[in-house]
Automatic annotation (TrEMBL):
Pfam families the record matches: FecCD
Annotated transmembrane regions: 7-31, 51-71, 83-101, 113-134, 143-166, 186-204, 233-261, 273-294, 300-319
Protein name: Iron complex transport system permease protein
Gene3D superfamilies given in the database record: ABC transporter involved in vitamin B12 uptake, BtuC
Organism: Epilithonimonas xixisoli
Entry-linked InterPro entries: ABC_BtuC-like, ABC_transptr_permease_BtuC
Entry's family note: Belongs to the binding-protein-dependent transport system permease family. FecCD subfamily.
MF GO annotations: transmembrane transporter activity
């Protein structure tokens, strides 16, 4: 069994390496191998943009599926995810508040990204706390999905209201951000995003063992010292940081947090959570690299590509589950 899991991961990792190399070579300008290392080359700056683009997709592929995996395991619902539950929408709403209301405030450029990231994380944490509180009131946890859709609709309505009154430049900045412009992330943004994802993964690793115990039943988990309240807080922090940090720097990337965990459960035993976590990371990175390549070739924003892919898959999931 372990050998079979290793074979699956091996082929996915090979796919990641191939797609990463292809991603580095997609664009208007043709680059040589030396352009990526020779600072005196005229194409060195373009090569840097492509490296940042590919690295951003690696980080997004790690963070978003992991966030969706945690939420699905906690809510015991395969449709739970940072976008379906409204986390991405509320993160976008808080970013919109910051962009629109800071338009007349002089803020240094090096602080802009930090404030956007902080706004996104605060929005994500706020909604996750609300979701956890309401999940205790609903006997059927599927109701939390409906609640998330309502929150998403409300957040979208508020953003539309703000767009109606703000200045054109702020509106343009927000629209460009929502496109998920992965090729706009610079090295400093990639560095901050990496740190945030490492923090999110730290809380993720702390959550897996309690989730394994919890999957055997709450009474069984408590007999082994699993604290439900601490588990909820750990999941709130992990999934919020992972989804909100990517949303902050790369814009809202939709449906990947639902689709990738679904595919991973098809590939491997859903009860083996450590294996599922590894699969979500490697398969998420592969899919985001492929979507980035499609985005560059088609010139469509990456969040449109992921939406066109994610919606049919979720519809098939609903039909399959009846």
């Amino acid at each position: 069994m372990k050998n079979k899991f290793g074979v699956i991961c091996f082929f996915i990792i090979v796919g990641i390496i191939i797609s990463f190399i292809i991603n580095l070579n997609i664009g208007y300008a043709k680059l040589s191998f030396s352009d990526f290392f020779n600072e005196s080359s005229e194409q060195f700056e373009i090569a840097g943009f492509r490296i940042n683009r590919a690295l951003a997709m690696v980080l997004a592929g790690i963070a978003i599926p992991t966030s969706g995996f945690l939420l699905q395991e906690h809510f015991k619902n395969p449709l739970a995810g940072p976008d379906v539950l409204g986390i991405t929408s509320v993160s976008s709403l808080f970013v919109a508040f910051y962009i629109f209301f800071s338009q007349n405030v002089l803020i240094p450029d090096f602080l802009q990204n930090s404030f956007i990231s902080l706004s996104s994380i605060l929005g994500s944490v706020f909604l996750m706390v609300v979701l956890i509180l309401f999940s205790n009131r609903f006997r059927d946890k599927s109701f939390i999905i409906i609640f998330g859709f309502l929150i998403s609709a409300l957040a979208g309505a508020v953003v539309s209201f703000l767009q109606f009154y703000v200045e054109s430049q702020s509106l343009k900045n927000y629209i460009l951000w929502t496109f998920g412009a992965n090729n706009q992330a610079d090295f400093s943004q990639i560095s901050i995003l990496t740190i945030l994802i490492i923090i999110g993964l730290f809380f993720t690793f702390k959550s897996i063992k309690p989730l394994i115990g919890n999957s055997l039943g709450s009474a069984y988990a408590q007999s082994f010292g699993v604290s439900q309240s601490k588990l909820k807080i750990s999941i709130i922090v992990a999934s919020s940081i992972l989804s909100a940090s990517v949303t902050a720097f790369l814009g809202p990337i939709l449906f990947i947090g639902v689709v990738v965990p679904h595919f991973c459960r098809m590939l491997w035993n859903p009860a083996q959570l450590w294996h599922q976590l590894i699969l979500n990371v490697v398969l998420g990175v592969l899919m985001m690299q492929v979507f980035s390549i499609i985005s560059e070739l088609s010139q469509f924003p990456i969040n449109i590509i992921t939406t066109f892919f994610g919606i049919p898959v979720i519809l098939l999931m609903l039909v399959k589950k009846k």
